[in-house]
């Protein structure tokens, strides 16, 4: 198991792990350091890094941005100290998220003729809709099928959301964080383009559970060519941590604490 899992989601966005249960989940996975990186939301504690029940918790965020060519990338900010610019940016994103979430719910309910019985609140995202569809007794869709056939990109109930530009998002996040990393670089349609963008950041997420064999040569080359640090994490949306991450030596190189 890794020493540090630096990509974890909680119920503040689309994860199922309660913030109060992070230490228990970390101990269960023999993980010492956890970075909470909820989508477009800050963590509810004042300090960028805290200790709870023997676990170091790094306050982080996963921020989606868009390049001028329309490519959407995810940036991981670590040890975040909120600035006025960041809070203003996130306020606008969350307002858009709520409006978009309700519109997607309304579309699914109208299309399937059901009541999903969900409340669109802060942190709401499409995984909440997919879980509700999967759990509903009158639907034939499981969680993945809900994405593949109803709410995924280009599906009938998909609605895009407004995304800040790469330049604006990266600038604001860098000013508020001790480190900014490009998340899961090999998940993008054009990894080379994504990795080229990472040269203006501080790090690239090298360790990640892609679920299949991937060629890490381009990632390793980008890390070396741009003299960047390597981060890593499980991208956990459930309660199981430590599927990927960093050794103690690798984490200490980041100088987050």
Question: What do these coordinates show?
Answer:
The protein has helices at residues 22-28, 84-112, 126-135, 143-151, 166-176, 191-197, 217-225, 248-252, and strands spanning 4-8, 33-36, 49-52, 55-66, 72-78, 179-182, 203-207, 229-232. With 257 residues, the protein is α/β, with parallel strands linked by helices. It folds into two domains: 4-81 and 177-252, Metal-dependent hydrolases (TIM Barrel, Alpha-Beta Barrel); 89-151, no CATH class. Strands 1, 2, 3, 4, 5, 6, 7 and 8 form an eight-stranded mixed β-sheet that branches. Helix 3 (126-135) crosses helix 4 (143-151). It is globular and about 55 Å long. The model has no long low-confidence stretch (mean pLDDT 96).
How are the SSEs ordered, and which strands pair?
Elements lengths: L3 E5 L13 H7 L4 E4 L12 E4 L2 E12 L5 E7 L5 H29 L13 H10 L7 H9 L14 H11 L2 E4 L8 H7 L5 E5 L9 H9 L3 E4 L15 H5 L5
Parallel strand pairs: 1-2, 2-4, 6-7, 7-8
Antiparallel strand pairs: 3-4, 4-5, 5-6
Helix pairs in contact: 3-4
């Amino acid at each position: 198991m890794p020493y540090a899992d630096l990509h974890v989601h909680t119920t503040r966005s689309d994860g199922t792990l309660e913030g109060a249960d992070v230490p228990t989940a970390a101990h269960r996975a023999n993980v010492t350091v956890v970075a909470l990186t909820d989508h477009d939301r800050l963590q509810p504690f004042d300090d960028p890094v805290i200790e709870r029940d023997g676990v170091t918790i790094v306050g982080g965020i996963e921020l989606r941005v868009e390049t001028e060519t329309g490519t959407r990338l995810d940036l991981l900010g670590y040890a975040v100290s909120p600035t006025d610019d960041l809070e203003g940016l996130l306020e606008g994103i969350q307002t858009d998220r709520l409006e978009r979430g309700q519109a997607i719910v309304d579309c699914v309910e109208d299309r399937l003729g059901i009541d999903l019985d969900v409340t669109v609140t802060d942190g709401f995202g499409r995984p909440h809709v997919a879980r509700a569809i999967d759990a509903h007794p009158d639907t034939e869709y499981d969680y993945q099928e809900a994405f593949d056939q109803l709410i995924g990109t280009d599906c009938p109930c998909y609605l895009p959301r407004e995304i800040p530009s790469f330049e604006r998002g990266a600038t604001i996040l860098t000013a508020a964080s001790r480190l900014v990393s490009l998340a899961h670089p090999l998940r993008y349609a054009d990894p080379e383009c994504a990795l080229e963008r990472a040269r203006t950041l501080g790090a690239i997420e090298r360790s990640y559970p892609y679920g299949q064999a991937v060629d890490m040569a381009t990632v390793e080359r980008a890390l070396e060519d741009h003299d960047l640090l390597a981060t890593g994490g499980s991208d956990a949306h459930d309660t199981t941590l430590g599927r990927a991450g960093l050794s103690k030596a690798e984490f200490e190189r980041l100088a987050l604490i």
